Structure to design on (464 residues):
């Protein structure tokens, strides 16, 4: 029996008791521009590094691109109505820099700004709070041609973009995120080359990581200057609990390094104004290159106070030692169930990373900016799609949010990743993260059982 055809009494009995949302808490959903918008040539949009990367043979599974994606650029009104029908209270979207500044700087493209203004106003009209992310990986290709994030100047260009967008949308959007998952941009994009721009060079990746963090600090300054005092600004980091696969010294050492690479390399600069010394030494020793990107004053800009921290949480990382430079650590076999991405499922990991931020770094407001799972869902039948694994993942992680709040974490919002099945980067359309199914031929949207569960969960949380 599916979650959708059970009797109301049976469904109520099977459904978990929602946690009590603290005052002001919002349940939401998240997406990103290149993953859903399509219309990559419309209204003066410039080329981004993801257009270039996806159109390069061999970079994305099945040769998929974001040319059409969910056609959200044209269907946004329907998508907003859909969200409203699912009781969604907060929507995190990203702004495509190449729609605003097609060549990265210079002439502003008003039609790009108008799109996001209409979107934000449309959200407010439906009682949904907008959260805007400035950078979800779609750098204007023209800036990449000039060296991209490896160039310090790109951070300055980003601050200028932030100022322009802040000035235009400041009256409608209160919550702002500068960078999304700088770890992915820096290391997956520039050390492993699995994401755009597809560079494989560790010293470059390290320079990029610094310029991304600097761009966060500079953009936060620019936004604050352009926005009303009530606006809030933060950065979204993807955080992972790191677990040694065995309880011995070598495995603990591997876990320390992986933790330094994925978590501390970003948390320490933002909250303590310094890169972790053990990692600086490791990188310099292993790459034979000085980490000299930081200049005087940068760390003060990077560590200026944030109004909130955005946390993206998906999975823990289980690790073991390896010989591969520069990190000398690799993924170990997962324990227990995994998602379609092969990511281990551990809701308690969300509670863990939130406790860590609160106790080791800062007890500041938290926005869960992403949390979700991809599974091979099968087909829509008679307007229904059962996705019991995603539903269980969502229920488990909502419970963890409630526990984190009870622990004392000041969680203000939760955004499920993702509202829609969409372009999952180098996996193309193969991995479906949506609580809403998208038929990429007809563009029909069908809420999956997980979406209906979430709707009812929000409803019950509001009534209890
Ligand atoms: O789809 C991505 C998103 O763009 C960034 N965070 C992780 C998601 C799932 O891989």
């Amino acid at each position: 029996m599916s979650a959708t055809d059970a009797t109301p009494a049976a469904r109520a009995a099977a459904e978990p008791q929602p946690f009590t949302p603290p005052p002001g808490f919002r349940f939401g959903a998240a997406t990103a521009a290149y993953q859903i918008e399509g219309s990559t040539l419309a209204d003066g949009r410039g080329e981004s590094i993801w257009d270039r990367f996806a159109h390069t043979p061999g970079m994305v599974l099945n040769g998929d691109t974001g040319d059409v994606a969910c056609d959200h650029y044209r269907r946004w009104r329907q998508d907003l109505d859909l969200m409203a029908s699912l009781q969604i209270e907060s929507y995190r979207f990203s702004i495509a820099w190449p729609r605003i500044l097609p060549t990265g700087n210079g002439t502003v493209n008003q039609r790009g700004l108008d799109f996001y203004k209409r979107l934000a106003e449309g959200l407010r009209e439906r009682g949904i709070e907008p959260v805007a992310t400035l950078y979800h990986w779609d750098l204007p290709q023209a800036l990449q041609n000039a060296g991209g994030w490896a160039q310090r100047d790109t951070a300055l260009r980003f601050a200028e973009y932030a100022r322009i967008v802040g000035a235009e949308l400041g009256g409608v959007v209160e919550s702002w995120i500068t960078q999304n998952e700088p770890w992915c941009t820096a290391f997956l994009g520039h050390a492993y080359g699995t994401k755009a721009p597809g560079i494989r060079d560790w010293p470059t990746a390290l320079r990029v990581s610094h310029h991304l963090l600097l761009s966060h600090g500079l953009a936060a300054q620019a936004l604050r200057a352009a926005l009303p005092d009530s606006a809030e600004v933060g950065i979204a980091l993807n955080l992972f609990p790191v677990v040694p696969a065995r309880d011995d010294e070598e495995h603990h050492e591997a876990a320390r390094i992986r933790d330094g690479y994925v978590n501390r390399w970003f948390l320490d600069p933002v909250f303590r104004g310094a890169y972790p010394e053990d990692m600086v030494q490791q990188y310099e020793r292993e790459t034979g290159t000085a980490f000299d990107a930081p200049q005087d004053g940068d760390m003060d800009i990077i560590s200026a106070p944030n109004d909130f921290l955005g946390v993206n949480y998906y999975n823990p990382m289980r690790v073991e030692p390896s010989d591969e430079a520069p990190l000398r650590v690799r993924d170990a076999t997962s324990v227990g169930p995994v998602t379609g991405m092969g990511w281990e499922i551990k809701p308690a990991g969300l509670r863990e990373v939130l406790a860590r931020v609160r106790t080791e770094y800062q007890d500041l407001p938290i926005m869960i900016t992403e949390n979700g799972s991809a599974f091979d869902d099968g087909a829509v039948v008679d307007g229904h799609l059962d996705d019991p694994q995603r539903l269980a993942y969502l229920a488990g992680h909502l419970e963890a949010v409630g526990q984190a709040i009870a622990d004392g974490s000041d969680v203000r919002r939760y955004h499920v990743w993702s509202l829609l099945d969409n372009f999952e980067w180098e996996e193309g359309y193969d991995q479906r993260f949506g609580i809403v199914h998208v038929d990429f031929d007809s563009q029909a949207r069908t809420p999956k059982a997980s979406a209906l569960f979430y709707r009812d969960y929000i409803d019950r949380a509001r009534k209890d």
Observations:
- The domain at 8-463 is CATH 3.20.20.80 (TIM Barrel).
- The longest strand covers residues 129-135.
- Residues 32, 35, 181, 312, 370, 417, 424, 433 surround 5-hydroxymethyl-3,4-dihydroxypiperidine (CB under 6 Å).
